[in-house]
Automatic annotation (TrEMBL):
Protein name per the record: CBM1 domain-containing protein
Signal peptide (from-to): none
A molecular function (GO) term: hydrolase activity
Pfam families recorded: Amidohydro_2
Residue ranges of domain Amidohydrolase-related in the record: 238-366
Recorded superkingdom: Eukaryota
Amino acid sequence: MARIYPELQKACQFYPAIDNHAHPILADQHRDRFEFEGLISEAQGSALTVDAVHTLACKRAVPQLNAILRIQNPTWDAIKAVRSQLRYDDLCNIFMHPTVTGIQCMLLDDGLGGVEEFSERYTWHDRFATSPTKRIVRVEIVAEGILKSLLKPHLATSSFDTATSIFQSFNIAFIASLDDNATDNSVVGFKSIACYRTGLDVAPEADSEESILMSLRDVLKMYQETGTIRLAHKALNDHILRMTFGVAGKCGKPVQFHTGLGDNDITLNRSSPSHLQAVIKAFPKTLFVLLHSSYPFTREAGYLAAVYSNVFLDFGEVFPFVSGPGQRAIIRQVLELCPTNKILWSTDGHWWPESYYLGSIQARQALYDVLSESVALGELLEDEAVSIVQNALFHNSNKLYKLSLEPNMAIFERK
């Protein structure tokens, strides 16, 4: 029988946590806007609605969700039926209350597509934490908004001769927006989705102005034809990120990058964090956070965090998308090289309150499973393992994002 380590178990189960990357949940009137299977998979279409329910991640989620719902014969469909009958306030409260998740503070990226239309505002989430919610600003979305305002007067013209003046105006407006966010106390960091748009091989040196202008002309043409702007033009996207790195490096607010695990909109072999190595070296004052365990490139992320002082590794989103054995393997890979003072935890919670619950309880269990093995093997003292847990859940994020919080040790006692 495996030995129980009570202090380590207590830390894993009950230490307050800072969720360093998540998203708002759906508003009541939009609670059924997206397929609930998105709770356990990033797939889309039939790969989500037909296949995802056959994963180990889904099978495991059923009894864990039922520990709250208490259905007599729990199945995935039964879980869906019961949750749909609950008052939305009750559903949110039973799965997101801080006594259930142990989350003291949430850092929300509210630039996710659909948030503006279908989700609650970031401050609404304060009711499910004991410290105020903070924002992570998604820079590509900011840039798209600025470009839309600048390009709108040119929708009726086929001439692109004004691209240079638009480019100059964009640079001024985008830097001003970054500076505003740099001094905004509600904003603690920036976020890039380059992984989805052009890949993570961001050029550290400036492209020629003409190549950026060509990208800008393509954006204007897209806007004229479709009425939408989606930045997926490498020269322009990389330019936007280099401006972000400059401001972020000066103000000390980290830049989070989506890496690895995502839906089928990413090109998998361009989502490895190893592609970021050149800009990590070129911008040593900029703090880079590699999100989502960089799965399946976790070892590469751990390597970067080990050899560059400005790189940090988030071990989130794999809860609950990856099976239990897979989650434990991922944490072991994180710990192979990554210094334990650079590990950050998140739920990547989004849309559904259950995502915060599963992201929390599964991560806490996986931490105990992995670290207790190391203690049993004599590779760690129990108090060292406890310190690793406390840092990963709370103190590392508290320091990196300059939150100046004290862990609320009474978090699990509040009713």
